[in-house]
């Protein structure tokens, strides 16, 4: 009886330990949005690429762990507006997973210390943390959603109005990206 209890405990501990990290199939990840929209100071619609490099293919499943670095490339904006990403690369932090283990349905990620200068008729400087949810279907990473993205710790300068919001969807480029618990 004692041996059976120890065996069960060992199996349970092994399963719990195995679920402590996330493993990705790619280290370099590109997400593309055809319409990334800023509302507030002005409505600005841009085509944007998020270029992410993961620190490693296996990351700790620990809240606020830095899992990679992100450089945002603004490809083009409508209506003569210009948006410049400053202070890059930005840290990407793991926040949480959604779903019932071992089936992950989404990952929540945070990009810290994002900074943008938006210009048109006036100029606005925004600095903030942004959280979004990355879909996961059958282990394959899907769209990064933000309707709107959650912004916090905002620092607003110049002609911003402190009601700025970002929204958009970023689809993975360059083939499927898979993620699994390890």
| Total helical elements | 1
Strand content: over 45%
Range of helix content: under 10%
Strand arrangement across the biggest beta sheet? 2-3-5-7-8-9-10-11
Termini distance? 30 Å
* SSE topology string: HEEEEEEEEEEEE
- The quaternary organization reads as single chain
Instruction: Specify the biggest β-sheet.
Output: 8 strands, antiparallel, barrel
How would you sum up the global shape?
A: elongated
Rg, alpha carbons? 19 Å
Q: Which structural class is indicated by helix and strand composition?
A: mainly beta
Q: Give the mean pLDDT.
A: 79
- List low-pLDDT spans: 1-18
- Quickly count the domains: 1
Number of strands: 12
Topology readout:
Layout: H1 2-18, E1 21-24, E2 28-39, E3 44-54, E4 58-60, E5 66-77, E6 82-86, E7 90-100, E8 103-119, E9 123-137, E10 140-158, E11 165-173, E12 179-181
Antiparallel strand pairs: 1-4, 1-12, 2-3, 2-11, 3-5, 5-7, 6-8, 7-8, 8-9, 9-10, 10-11
Report on this model:
With 182 residues, the protein is mostly beta strands. It has one domain. Helix content is 9%, strand content 66%. The chain contains one helix and twelve strands; from the N terminus they run H-E-E-E-E-E-E-E-E-E-E-E-E. It has one helix at residues 2-18; strands spanning 21-24, 28-39, 44-54, 58-60, 66-77, 82-86, 90-100, 103-119, 123-137, 140-158, 165-173, 179-181. The strands form two sheets. It has an eight-stranded antiparallel β-barrel with strand order 2-3-5-7-8-9-10-11. Strands 4-1-12 form a three-stranded antiparallel sheet, with no helix packed on it. The chain is elongated, with a radius of gyration of 19 Å. It starts with a helix and ends with a strand.
């Amino acid at each position: 009886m004692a041996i059976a209890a120890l065996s069960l405990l060992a199996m349970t501990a092994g399963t719990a330990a195995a679920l402590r990290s996330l493993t990705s199939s790619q280290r370099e990840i590109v997400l593309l949005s055809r319409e990334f929209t800023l509302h507030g100071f002005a409505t600005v619609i841009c085509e944007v690429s998020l270029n992410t490099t993961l620190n490693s293919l296996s990351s700790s499943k620990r809240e606020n762990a830095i899992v990679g670095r992100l450089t945002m490339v603004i490809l083009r904006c409508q209506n003569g507006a210009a948006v410049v990403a400053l202070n890059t690369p930005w840290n990407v932090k793991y926040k949480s997973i959604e779903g019932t283990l071992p089936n992950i349905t989404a990952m929540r990620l945070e990009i810290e210390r994002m900074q943008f200068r938006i210009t048109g008729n006036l100029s606005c400087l925004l600095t903030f943390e942004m959280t979004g949810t990355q879909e996961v279907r059958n282990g394959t990473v899907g769209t990064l959603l933000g309707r709107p993205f959650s912004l916090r710790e905002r620092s607003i300068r110049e002609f911003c109005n402190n009601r700025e919001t970002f929204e958009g969807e970023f689809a993975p480029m360059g083939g499927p990206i898979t993620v699994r618990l390890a």
